[in-house]
């Protein structure tokens, strides 16, 4: 079933309970899945996916950067060049480099580097 609202938004309802909203701009799309997951596509092509069961948000930017935000406060950034940066709930930051090196920066300022 499709409904067109006065403001130009389109709502599309699927038999399995999933529904899709297309904004009046035609570029903003939100899909709410039957299992509670939500996918948003923004006008700049940023994609935000919320996994309801895991309470995790995965954002993919148009430049290739991916950011995962977990329910425990952990944040992971996956860069297009392969580098990863993980911020743990205690604010420890771990950088994983493409050449195999690792760097951990602890809240007290201690830095530990592991060479390949």
UniProtKB/TrEMBL annotation:
Q: Where is the Centromere protein J C-terminal domain?
A: 63-90, 98-115
Show the InterPro entries listed in the entry: CENPJ_C_dom, Tcp10_C_sf, TCP10L/CENPJ
Question: What does the entry give for GO biological process?
Answer: centriole elongation; cilium assembly
Q: Which domain of life is it from?
A: Eukaryota
Single Gene Ontology MF annotation: tubulin binding
What is one cellular component GO term in this UniProt entry?
centrosome
What PANTHER family does the annotation carry? CENTROMERE PROTEIN J (PTHR10331:SF23), T COMPLEX PROTEIN 10 (PTHR10331)
Question: What family is reported?
Answer: Belongs to the TCP10 family.
Q: What protein is this chain from?
A: CENPJ protein
Q: What is the organism field in this record?
A: Neodrepanis coruscans
What gene name is given for the protein in this entry?
Cenpj
